[in-house]
């Protein structure tokens, strides 16, 4: 059984820890996390009974696989502070936006094992979507083990690093846009007189069902949209407004802005 450590214990690390513990991939005693304060660590300890420490170096000493789960602005400094403990055998898994494999190799050495990844917060409910980019020192068996961790809380794919900015736009950050869409649809239902809590359930379940249809039917999203639009009916009226208001171009522009920001952060 591999020991898994997390430097950083915020939103994303919490979602991953929740995912791997709930899917019984690792025992809680084999997971350790560190953070700046005890606030998030205490919550994770109470909920999942994992080991916690305020010392990132303790995490590295006690882990075979070390997740770097701190914000990009402090990432390099934190990695620098533990680099002497990262031997040839440990695997460093970064989840940070805008941190390239080469920038990590510059800090810990290009002979070290690194996997750059991009997960998303639906990991918390076992519906995560993650991308993994291994560096040249990662062996197939090691990639399989780490991919298994990501698959334990959703789906994952191995991609070339050149795709990671697009991954951030379409899955890493996209839960935020989808939550906005659900909130806006529910607002409209509230306008129509529906109690708010009920409106969130109706809106969210519809998004869940629509997403499942795209994945399971294999049909083009346009064809699935057409199946909902009865001639002269209600749906096409809404579609007309969405087209007039530039919904598609808003979404494309928003996701492109996200991708551009990710590229900028990597420079
Ligand atoms: N949120 C998301 O949806 C996603 C985030 N990411 C990436 O995940 C990373 C973390 O983001 P997120 O979880 O949202 O951020 P959070 O702000 O929620 O968490 C950051 C964590 O880092 C800890 N921390 C701060 N300083 C240090 C330090 N010096 N040493 C050790 N730990 C420290 C914080 O401690 P404390 O608990 O005390 O505050 C906190 O636990 C980012 O790099 C982001 O790009 C990737 C995919 C999705
Ligand atoms: O907003 C961010 O920068 C991080 C990366 C992907 C999701 N959250």
Question: Any overview of this molecule?
Answer:
- The chain has 267 residues and is of the alpha/beta class.
- It folds into two domains: 4-163, 3-Layer(aba) Sandwich (Rossmann fold); 174-266, ProC C-terminal domain-like fold, CATH 1.10.3730.10.
- It contains twelve helices and eight strands.
- The chain has helices at residues 11-22, 38-48, 56-61, 72-82, 101-108, 140-151, 164-172, 174-191, 196-217, 221-228, 234-244, 247-266; strands at residues 4-7, 31-34, 51-53, 65-68, 91-94, 113-118, 128-134, 154-158.
- Strand 4, helix 4 (72-82) and strand 5 form a beta-alpha-beta unit.
- Helix 7 packs across helix 12 and helix 8 crosses helix 9 (196-217).
- The chain is elongated.
- The chain starts with a strand and ends with a helix.
- Indicate the proportion of strand residues: 5-15%
Annotated CATH architecture of the largest domain: 3-Layer(aba) Sandwich
User: What is the number of E strands?
Assistant: 8
| Strand arrangement, major sheet | 3-2-1-4-5-6-7-8
Q: Cα-atom Rg, whole angstroms?
A: 21 Å
Proportion of helical residues: 55-70%
- Most strands sheet: 8 strands, mixed
- The CATH superfamily of the largest domain is NAD(P)-binding Rossmann-like Domain
The low-pLDDT segments are none
Domain unit count: 2
Number of helices: 12
SSE series = EHEHEHEHEHEEHEHHHHHH
- Which ligands accompany this protein? NADPH dihydro-nicotinamide-adenine-dinucleotide phosphate, (2S)-3,4-dihydro-2H-pyrrole-2-carboxylic acid
From the spread of the alpha carbons, the general shape counts as: elongated
| CATH fold group of the largest domain | Rossmann fold
Pathway: Amino-acid biosynthesis; L-proline biosynthesis; L-proline from L-glutamate 5-semialdehyde: step 1/1
EC number: 1.5.1.2
Subcellular location: Cytoplasm
Organism: Intestinibacter bartlettii
């Amino acid at each position: 059984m591999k020991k898994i450590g997390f430097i950083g214990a915020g939103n994303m690390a919490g979602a991953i820890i929740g995912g791997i513990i709930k899917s019984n991939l690792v025992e809680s005693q084999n997971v350790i996390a560190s953070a700046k304060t005890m606030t998030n660590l205490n919550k994770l300890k109470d909920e999942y009974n994992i080991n916690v420490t305020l010392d990132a170096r303790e995490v590295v000493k006690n882990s075979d696989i070390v997740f770097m789960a701190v914000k990009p602005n402090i990432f390099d400094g934190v990695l620098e502070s533990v680099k002497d403990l990262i031997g040839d055998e440990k695997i460093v898994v970064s989840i940070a936006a805008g941190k390239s494999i080469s920038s990590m190799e510059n800090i810990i050495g290009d002979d070290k094992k690194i996997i750059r990844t991009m997960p998303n917060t639906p990991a918390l409910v076992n519906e995560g979507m993650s991308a993994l980019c291994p560096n040249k020192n990662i062996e197939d068996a090691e990639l399989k083990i780490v991919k298994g961790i990501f698959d334990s809380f959703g789906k994952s794919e191995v991609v070339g690093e050149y795709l990671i900015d697009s991954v951030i736009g379409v899955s890493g950050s996209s839960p935020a846009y989808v939550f906005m869409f659900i909130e806006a649809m529910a607002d409209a239902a509230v306008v129509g007189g529906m109690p708010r809590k009920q409106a969130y359930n109706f809106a969210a379940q519809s998004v869940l069902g629509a997403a499942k249809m795209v994945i399971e039917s294999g049909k083009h999203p346009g064809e699935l949209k057409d199946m909902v639009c009865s001639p002269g009916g209600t749906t096409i009226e809404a579609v007309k407004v969405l087209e007039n208001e530039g919904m598609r171009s808003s979404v494309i522009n928003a996701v492109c802005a996200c991708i551009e920001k990710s590229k900028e952060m990597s420079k």
